[in-house]
Amino acid sequence: MNKCVLRGCVPKKLLVYASKYTHEFEDSHGFGWKYDTEPSHDWSTLIANKNAELQRLTGIYKNILNNANVKLIEGRGKVIDPHTVDVDGKIYTTRNILIAVGGRPFIPDIPGREFAIDSDAALDLPSKPKKIAIVGGGYIALEFAGIFNGLNSEVHVFIRQKKVLRGFDEDVRDFVGEQMSLRGIEFHTEESPEAIIKAGDGSFSLKTSKGTVDGFSHVMFATGRKPNTKNLGLENVGVKLAKNGAIEVDEYSRTSVPSIYAVGDVTDRINLTPVALMEGMALAKTLFQNDPTKPDYRAVPCAVFSQPPIGTVGLTEEQAIEQYGDIDVFTSNFKPLKATLSGLPDRVFMKLIVCANTNKVLGVHMCGEDSPEIIQGFGVAVKAGLTKADFDATVGVHPTAAEEFVTMRTPTRKIRKESSEAAATRSLEKGTNLDSILDMLDKVLPELSCPVSLFTYYNPILKRGLGKFMSSIRDVGVQGLVVPDVPLEETEFLRKEALNNSIELVLLTTPTTPTERMKRIVDASEGFIYLVSSIGVTGARASVSGKVQSLLKDIKEATDKPVAVGFGISKPEHVKQIAGWGADGVIVGSAMVRLLGDAKSPAEGLKELESLTKSLKSALL
Amino acid sequence: MMKAQTDEILRLNNIYKRLLANAAVKLYEGEGRIVGPNEVEVRQIDGTKISYTAKHILIATGSRAQKPNIPGHELAITSDEALSLEDFPKRAIVLGGGYIAVEFASIWRGMGATVDLFFRKELPLRGFDDEMRALVARNLEGRGINLHPQTSLAELIKTDDGIKVISSHGEEFVADVVLFATGRIPNTKRLNLEAVGVELDQAGAVDEYSRTNIPSIWAVGDATNRINLTPVALMEATCFANTVFGGKPTKADYTNVACAVFCIPPLAVVGLSEEEAVEKATGDILVFTSGFNPMKNTISGRQEKTLMKLIVDEKTDKGIAIALKCGATKAQFDSTVGIHPSSAEEFVTMRTVTRRIAYKAKPQTSL
Question: Which residue of B has its CA nearest to A384?
């Protein structure tokens, strides 16, 4: 727990408070506040006051230990055997040993790493950084980016991925990245650090996989933390460690040595202070209250103190789809009342994820002022397994941002496993097979003026035999083929056989496809590029994600081949949007399947399909 | 700032008008009165009167501020004017102890005014938990607001220097603005209700479905003086819509409605006060409190405490908006991991009872 108070959560939060004032001062003008001079910040006052407060808190914790009759022995500790600990040479025997040494920052071994600072040093800098490079996309990187940006440093954040905060809900990742950029932080995405070079004038240059950026006064690495298990003597005692040095424990926090236990970041489970607290309390109950208790890791709320901050509890949308299948997603993206007078571009994003079958709230996510405090309360609700109906029955507190969570009436999107999978199952049950499809195509194709492509999973191809499949479909006049479950690396043999039969193999690229890979996909794709317009299982969505626009731009830069956008398209508005962004075509699936499935008869279904298709097509003209 | 505020209010008004239009609601602007169980008359802005018949009439005219009949009361303003004062009041006097009074006192004090707050009781915010009321009072004083408990105003006199105010204790004050925030009453006077036979002014004027004593006339919101909060009006209206048009008679649920008072620092509550809990108790009541100077203040040096309080029925372990609504227990609170560092996490880490209030059977009286 020493990390949190001295070199973690507490000093971090104090610095976050300090850095928020700049935004508040900017905000205040719209509310009528004028100053003769702009407020200026004195770094040394902040650090001195921060350190005084940490001293005070350390004193308090020491008192708490004292009052609980805990003997505090200060020094460097080592485990000698299952019941013996050595502290600076003095030996202590004990019935149980608990290891809670936490983690330490990890800096990759690149040339110039001696010039880099970690989060420990960043909390105690002698002066404010003028221009700082922060390497990393996790919560530590974002929090420090916000701190230094708020204190008027020039901040550049370098991340390996396309977006920050891997593991968080995709909508939240997009939103916080955008909001932070609007506040002046410059993000360099898909860049890996290669070296830090010290220039003649004392400044640092950061060389990455994409180039070099000069002029940094500081380079900070926030690229992960490793369990702090070196030199504890653990290996000699037989305590099993994972590859990254984490102490392996069972559900009761017991290590491979029966009298030795471990909790907190050193076990690399969920690395949050309150979780370590929970693990510690469960252990106390198990060992000393004769009440074996396992810590419960479900629905652990957590926060990122970026600016704006994030609060989250429960599953992300992606996790919810994976674990529950059918879900309803409610989102709200709005300008908070405060920003209406200030004129600043601040917005708030709030999201509820609900299981469509049980109505249980699976996840609550928010990015905006006060989200951490707000989400704490909702954490109790999610942990207690409350439903959307329970939320809706709760009267809001007005006027607040939080009340949005209890007044979300219309789902932004409904995800139903109305995927190709479900549609395929239904048609298979009705007796559809490859031969019946080939028969139909044989009759119908001569009357069509447009080319026909087939969309299939790999299994039917495998069953028929690759060569036979390709020649059969060529014989009836099919021109293109899409096989979504074969990844790029394995399409080679498919392509060869397709080419032999003059069939064009169309490949798919998605919003999460890394740029390098996307380029290889567009190179290899025949006919056109199939751009998946949203992540996750297909299902008619309420509106097309704005990401499509930038993805289209990227793809168009990489190739001249036509691009068609698909997955979730169901309305003329979608088509108009996508066409406006430069797509050459749109692909409609679920909407048609649903329409046909819901129709009272095939004839009626076809009629409705005709009018749907006409309305979609007219949006293209 | 006032211009920006007015612009924003106009913008929001237009949005609401659009919402109505998009829902195919016809908006008639003018002064309305009820002339029959199924008839409404509107006197439009140009003076002409039109009548409309309707199957149902819903009254949602809200409330209006009420000024006590103190000599010189015409010199005082209500919250209506307070929201659009032309000039900033350097010296302000506020009469009242409710949320409106403390909110305006905080707003003006926050902008640097000298503020004197007068209220009838020992503490402001009657009806709220006493321990919380005491802290609110202490915090208002801490921010420099002068509190005058158990004091009313006797007279207001216009002078060249401002408004001279004489308190019920005989003290004299001078202010640029005197705000009367002593209560609001349902806004039903000019609706012609008496002629139609609708009784709205007493308590219980509408039933649980928001229907008045006239079957075709309904009322929701502050006009019915139940719980006068916007989201509650919203709830009452939604239930009305379900009952009358949705074929599903729905009663509004008034239990565990959360509410906030936006004084500085603000107060937020849900569920029973300690006093109410003790009153309704059928067993022991456990009170968990956490009072602390929040982290931010330790650096700024401000001496201002945060108080967080949880009241639990020991027998059922049930303790609070969403959670209380579904009878969540203290155990469920405790099993929720905290978000750190935050103030909110205190609510899920209250391990030790601050005090226990033993159940006392009410004495049977024969009167």
Answer: B332
| DSSP conformational letter for A445 | G
Per-block average pLDDT, block size 10, for chain A (621 residues)?
A: 73 94 92 91 94 91 90 93 95 96 92 95 94 96 97 96 94 96 96 95 95 96 92 93 94 96 94 91 94 93 96 94 90 92 92 94 97 93 94 91 93 75 68 88 91 89 90 93 86 88 92 87 93 58 68 91 86 86 88 80 89 88 72
Known catalytic membership, residue B73: no
The Cα of A381 is separated from the nearest Cα of chain B by a number of Å equal to 6
**Which among B165, B160, B187, B188 is positioned nearest to B175, based on CA atoms?**
B165
Asked if B54 is an interface residue toward chain A (Cβ–Cβ < 8 A), one would say no
Give B269's strand partners: B259
Judge if pTM exceeds 0.90: no
- Smallest CA–CA distance, residue A340 to chain B, in Å, is 7
Chain A positions in Cβ-Cβ contact with residue B5 (cut-off 8 Å): 341
The complex's ipTM works out to: 0.80
Q: Is A35 exposed, middle or buried (0-12, 13-18, 19+ CB in 10 A)?
A: exposed
CA distance B256 to A274: 28
Q: Which two tokens stand for residue B325?
A: 């609504």
Nearest Cα of chain B lies from the Cα of A5 at a distance, in angstroms, of 10
Cα R_g (chain B), whole angstroms: 24
The segments of chain B whose pLDDT lies below 50 read 320-326, 364, 366-367
B337–A301 CB contact, under 8 Å: yes
Asked if B259's CB is within 8 angstroms of A303's CB, the reply is: no
Computed over its alpha carbons, how large is the radius of gyration of chain A?
29
Beta strands in B91-227, from DSSP E residues, in sequence order: 91-95, 114-119, 146-149, 153-159, 162-167, 172-175, 177-180, 184-186, 217-219
Question: In the prediction, which pLDDT does A162 show?
Answer: 92
Catalytic residue among B56, B148, B169, B340: B340
Note the helical H segments in A2-129. 2-7, 9-28, 43-67, 119-122
Decide: helix, strand or coil at residue A303. strand
Strand, helix or coil for residue A26 = helix
Measured CA to CA, the distance from residue B105 to residue A193 in angstroms comes to 55
Residues of A tagged active-site: 398
Q: Which domains does chain A have, with CATH numbers?
A: 2-49+107-223 (3.50.50.60), 75-103+243-288 (3.50.50.60), 302-415 (3.30.390.30), 420-620 (3.20.20.70)
Looking at beta carbons, which residues of chain B come within 8 Å of A393? 253, 325
How many Cβ pairs closer than 8 A exist between chain A and B?
143
Evaluate whether A171 touches A348 at the Cβ level (below 8 Å): no
Query: Which residues in chain B have Cβ-Cβ distances shorter than 8 Å to A4?
Result: 340
